[in-house]
Specification:
With 375 residues, the chain is of the alpha/beta class. The longest helix has 68 residues. The chain is built from 10 helices and 12 strands. Helix 6 crosses helix 7 and helix 8 runs antiparallel to helix 10.
Length: 375
Amino acid sequence: MSVKKILFVDDEQFVLDGLSRLLREYRERWQFRLALNGKEALEIVNNDTIDMIISDVRMPEMNGLELLERLQTDEKTKNIPVVVLTGDQERSLKRQALDLGAVDLLNKPINKEDLVSRIDNVLKLKEYQDIIIEKKRALEEQLVISQKMELVGVMAAGAVHDLSNLIAIIIGYSNLFIEASSLNQEEALSMERIRRAGEKASDVVGHIMRFSRLDDTRTMVNIGDLVDEILSILEVTVPKPIKIQWKKPHEAIYLSGSAIKYQQVVMNLCINATQSMEPLGKGKLKVSIQKLPREGEGRPSVRIEVEDTGTGMDNETMKKIFYPLFTTKEPGKGTGLGLFVVKHIIDQYSGNIEVVSEVGKGSIFRVYFPLDEGV
């Protein structure tokens, strides 16, 4: 636990000394700074990280209310919680202090138990406030990124359409040359390779176009076809030393819901898996689907399993992976939202997820979705 810095502000030196003696048994938890007026307090705040301020109101040069006002007008100091010391009869000063942003009031003379309790409560609130501010900042950054990605998506859709037309031209002319009798054997073989490459590129573009046309309406989704599309796209983008192992089920397995949401679940799990193997420079991504019979009073279900041979996770990391904005990646390389979204969708569809992982040996994510009766 880090030591918190508390600034006491009072124009009476004996009061400051008394507060220090009163709290001397808490010096392992709290570090105390002392100021005789608001001006000194501002100098300390501007040159040190202060977690909390306890200030008298009536002081020379700059009183407690003026100090509050100055703190509130500065972006760097406006979030420092301030507790104001007042007398029992100073009701108007108490009201002004609260209006100016004081988080609490303490009456003179100060009671030790009351003071310790107030400090504890205020520091806990400050900790929660700091977490909220950090999460808000991170969410704002993600909003900017998502807006950029939306624009990229619009541009990419046009580019994919144009690319599809260009590939069609390449395949068309390749066929014309192959059919021509003027080519020798070596030229015909080269042109056949060009045609096959064009057809492969056309397949990839087709997968991307079908992938992007999915809408969010609830329907019956063939989960095998969906996974097939996703892995066809990933196969082109993942590093070559990472192998994908996947066998599409012979029977069609349908799930009721949004194709986009199922897509998000599988895509996020597969991307996380491949990223966990990238530092190793090699690995295997194994994806499987299995239809499971009813157990007891439950419904039959579908299990989607994504396994990797990546770096794996320790128990502490596994406890946090579904928290929003939690990421183990370097700054700028992960949003911390992928698995949070996965868990949200699984909960929305009354599903379940299991995670097995070991550091240095990889991870297995097992997702269970209930099947509709009769499907």
